[in-house]
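Problem statement: downstream parser choked on a complex file, so we are re-checking the raw output for the FE2/S2 (inorganic) cluster run. The parser issue turned out to be on our end (a line-ending mismatch), but while we're here, posting the original submission so the record is complete.
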Amino acid sequence: MAKILENIKVSDKIYKLVIEGKFHGEMGQFFMIRGWDDYPLLSRPLSIHDKNNESITFLYRVEGFGTNKLTQLRKGDNIKLEGPYGNGYPTVKGRIAIVGGGIGIAPLLYTAKNLKNTVKELDIYLGFTEKEYLTDEFGKYGNNLYVSVGDFITGKLEVDKYDYVFTCGPEIMMRKIVEMAKGKNVKTYVSIEKHMACGVGACLVCSCKTKNGMSRVCKDGPVYLGEDVFY
Ligand code: FES
């Protein structure tokens, strides 16, 4: 059990949840979050948006009963979180682009913060459907920040400028990036979103087809080499 420090709306249907405490976790990993007792039955998987020695932050979009229930929690309320789970983004060196679309920007802030001091160049690309949000936060970490609203962010991306592209967002966007990188000297890593139940590899609810066979996103992912998922 941990205490909520803040649960605020940052844009339409998008909320930021800050929880007190020092938590482990690497860029791209997630926690199973539960702010209720019995119903809904399942916890919600939320990736680490940010963290420091005093708190951990998650970003979520209201999509159904569970996430709607999350929005009702207030400062001082208790919340249960289990994790960190899954395999996140690798630690790399070189020139890197981070590309997020919509709520897919969630795991990328902590990723940018971590990479900022180790990579040679870090450019950040963020795409939104209607309105941008949290772009200032990302601006602190990138050498360059590119933002698109209502248009495909991939139109601004020149993959050959980078050694790696880390992405999270709509499947169509990630697939496009993997295609753009094909045959070029750039490695892509994608973070896959699936419904989850157990979060630890036991129920197979989160199964996803990869080049190497079926895979459990919660345990084997959520981050995969792009070419293994979009092949
Ligand atoms: Fe149960 Fe992934 S959520 S195996």
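For whoever reads this later: The chain has a mean pLDDT of 95.
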